[in-house]
Write a structure and sequence with these properties.
This protein has six helices and five strands. With 128 residues, it is α/β, with parallel strands linked by helices. It has a five-stranded parallel β-sheet with strand order 3-2-1-4-5, sandwiched between helices. Helix 5 crosses helix 6. It starts with a strand and ends with a strand.
C-alpha cells in the first residue's frame, strides 16, 4: 500500500481524463490498495485559478474528491511552519505546502514538477 499526495495538475488531469497523466500514474491512483490524498492547498489553488479564469474545474471540488474516494488532507499549523522553513528551491507557496505535508505525513507526491526532487521526498512521475 502506498500513501500518495496528488499535485494539483495530477488531480486536474485525473478529473479530466487527460492523457498527460501517464499509465503508471493512473494505475497508482486507481489501485484500491493505495490511499490517495488531496491537500486543502490543492483545492485552494484550483479555486483561485478558477476565479481568475485560468482553470475550468468542478464547482464543488470537495464533492468530486469525495466521490473519487480520495482522502482530504487539511493544513495544520505544523504544516504551515514547516512549509515556511523549506529551502527556497521552489517559490510556489502551494507546492511548498505539498512538500511540507508529504514530509510531515510520510507521503509520496505524484507530480511532474522538476523542482520537487531537490527536497529529497519520494515522488511518482505523473507523466509516466
Amino acid at each position: 500500500m502506498k500513501r500518495i499526495l496528488l499535485d494539483t495538475h495530477a488531480l486536474i488531469w485525473w478529473f479530466n481524463g487527460d492523457e498527460k497523466l501517464g499509465i503508471n500514474a493512473r494505475e497508482q491512483i486507481s489501485n484500491p490498495e493505495n490511499n490517495i490524498y488531496v491537500s486543502a492547498a490543492t483545492v485552494w489553488e484550483m479555486s483561485i485559478k478558477q476565479q481568475m479564469g485560468k482553470l475550468v474545474a468542478p464547482e464543488d471540488i470537495e464533492s468530486k474528491v469525495e466521490q473519487a474516494g480520495f482522502n482530504s488532507l487539511p493544513i495544520s499549523l505544523f504544516h504551515g511552519q514547516q512549509a515556511g522553513k523549506l529551502p527556497l528551491h521552489h517559490k510556489d507557496p502551494f507546492d511548498r505546502m505539498l512538500i511540507a505535508q508529504a514530509q510531515a505525513e510520510g507521503l509520496q507526491i505524484l507530480t511532474k514538477d522538476e523542482h520537487f526532487p531537490a527536497y529529497g521526498i519520494r515522488l511518482i512521475n505523473a507523466s509516466k
